[in-house]
Design goal:
This protein is mainly beta. It is about 5% helix and about 60% strand. The chain has a 26-stranded antiparallel beta barrel. About 15% of the residues are buried.
């Protein structure tokens, strides 16, 4: 009943919003449609002991956008073989008709409400967004997860999950430069929806989240954005209910908003950033704190137990010929000081792009990582404490000459990576450095639309007294043929000579090729690639459990067709 009420509300609101703008409908074309439909199939063959990809795969997809009197009705679908274990193909269908400041979502859709509350999560249901003038309204109701039964007989493991229904609403005022929003989100699992053999492997959950977001723009150059949220999460709906939580203002608040149980936890999260943009220079400083127990079922990929401070800068000089970006960030966990240790991470980076002349370009970059464990509830010994520094440097120059018939490009790269382990017990096995470089020459025959490339490669990896070197060459060519360049061909081949201080090793061989043809609305592509990777004896040093590694031989290919209109 709740689902039908939400559906009726959204449809009525959508038709009402369209009726307010019906005066312009005569100026629109009655009907037009554009989009594309296609299919692809691919294969993969390998001698690897553990398969990393299925031997065959297929995919059917389509995107259609009918427009009726100026009202866009986008529709998309994807069907592939990965739903076979659930006795039905994996199908996603959705459309989002829009008209001026109104948008209706039907089927599989996504909506962004807040990065802390509901973001990156799709739903199957209905949604509505209304933004007339200074009003900011959004709401949805639908299924967030479908049920997956636990199956131990098919030979293919599938992690079981309950179906989950969720809904949310956002109400705010303002525009893209200045606004304030208030958000409410709720989700609940249906513990009877899926077959679970071992009940301890899966627990049904319920979640209520309240939050707010705002953005303030000052003098067109200063922007301040903030997101905040509080969450109440019941980790197991099978637990007994509690009438009144024992302590804590957050716990008492959520005790009034949702059934409070023994496994219910309440927590908070927030983030804020300030950006300043002046002529040729932009800077941004941000802060983020997510408590250890904070979780929203509308943001499935968000990490908790983290405090982060970051600073990013961008500088443009000489009318854009010199660009410098730099950033630093520092984060740590163990916010409640109840873990045995605390991990601290400091990251810094700098990137310089310089246009030294019309033909000569230069890029230089650096990134550094400092990983360190700090004492928590116990005092760590130096022999088990994580304390590592990683430094990466890169230089990439390029020079291009172009005339009416040909283009010539010479480019190169030098990269160096150093891992410095301060732990006296592990540094012998982890300290390492890697030096790699390449030199590339490309000639393009402009009138014939043909390019040829030759690349020389070198790399050297050192760890303790062991050294692994690689020398190689890659050859490649691409061409566009026929009068209207409908036929495209591409091919590459490479060979690498490998040398190891531990003994004799094999060499690498790679090749790839593709052909594509397009004619008006049709496009067809065929591709294949082969990679032979030899056994590397350094693996035995890194992991003593590896007594023998298989030299891998991987062959992959496929075909795809697309029709656009």
């Amino acid at each position: 009943m709740k689902f039908y009420l939400f559906t009726l509300f959204f449809v009525l609101a959508a038709f009402t919003s369209m009726a307010q703008n019906i005066g312009n409908i005569k100026k629109q074309k009655p009907f037009k449609i554009n989009g594309s439909i296609g299919a692809s199939a691919n294969f993969y063959s390998s001698n690897e002991p553990i398969a990393t990809r299925p031997p065959f795969g297929w995919n059917i997809y389509g995107n259609f956008t009918p427009t009726v009197y100026g009202i866009a009705l986008p529709v998309s679908f994807v069907i592939n073989q990965y739903g076979k274990s659930y006795q039905q193909p994996f199908t996603m269908f959705g459309l989002s008709p829009t008209y001026k400041w109104a948008k209706l979502h039907l089927g599989y859709r996504t909506m962004q409400m807040s990065p802390l509350i509901f973001d990156g999560q799709s739903f199957r249901g209905v949604g509505l967004e209304l933004n007339p003038k200074l009003i900011r309204f959004g709401a949805f109701y639908g299924k967030l997860n479908r049920k997956i039964n636990e199956d131990t007989t098919s030979g293919r493991f599938a992690l079981p999950q309950f179906s989950r229904i969720g809904y949310g609403i956002k109400l705010g005022v303002g525009n893209n430069k200045n606004f304030i929003d208030f958000i409410y989100f709720h989700a609940k699992d249906d513990s009877t929806s899926a077959k679970v053999i071992n009940k301890t492997n899966l627990r049904s959950q319920e979640n209520t989240v309240l939050g707010s977001a705002f953005k303030i723009t000052l003098l067109k150059k200063i922007t301040w954005t903030t997101d905040a949220a509080i969450s109440g999460l019941t980790q197991d709906l099978a637990d007994a209910k509690i009438k009144t939580p024992a302590s804590g203002s957050l716990e008492k608040l959520f005790g009034k908003l949702m059934p409070y149980r023994n496994s219910t936890i309440a927590s908070y999260a927030g983030q804020s950033s300030v950006s300043i943009a002046i002529k040729g220079y932009t800077t941004n400083i941000g802060y983020r704190r997510v408590q250890p127990d904070f979780k929203s079922l509308g943001t499935p990929y968000m990490l908790n137990d983290v405090e982060l401070i970051n600073w990013m800068n961008n500088l443009n000089l000489s009318k854009g010929k010199l660009n410098i970006t730099a950033s630093i960030s520092n984060q740590h966990n163990n916010l409640k000081k109840n873990l045995t240790s605390e991990l601290q991470t400091f990251v810094s980076s700098m990137n310089i792009n310089a246009m030294l002349s019309k033909s000569l370009m230069l890029n230089m970059n650096y990134s550094g990582y400092n990983l360190k464990q700090k004492d928590g509830t116990i005092k760590l010994k130096d022999s088990v404490r994580l304390n590592q520094q990683i430094h990466q440097f890169g230089v990439m120059p390029s020079y291009t000459m172009i005339n009416t018939a040909q283009s010539h490009t010479i480019s190169g790269s030098i990269n160096y990576m150093l891992l410095d382990d301060k732990n006296p017990a592990t540094q012998k096995f982890t300290n390492s450095n890697n030096l790699s470089g390449s030199l590339n020459y490309t000639i393009g025959f402009l009138k014939k639309s043909v390019n040829c490339t030759v690349t020389g490669l070198f790399s050297q990896y050192k760890q303790d007294t062991n050294t692994y070197k690689t020398y190689g060459i890659n050859l490649g060519s691409s061409a566009q043929l026929l009068k209207q360049k409908q036929l495209s061909l591409q091919g590459t081949a490479g060979y690498l000579l490998n040398r190891s201080s531990l003994g004799k090793v094999q060499n690498n061989l790679t090749f790839s090729g593709s052909a594509g043809f397009r004619q008006k609305h049709h496009s067809l592509r065929i591709f294949a690639n082969y990679v032979f990777t030899p056994y590397n004896p350094i693996n035995d040093i890194i992991n003593k459990k590896i007594t023998q590694a298989v030299a891998s031989k991987n062959l992959a290919g496929g075909i795809s067709y697309n029709y656009s209109f």
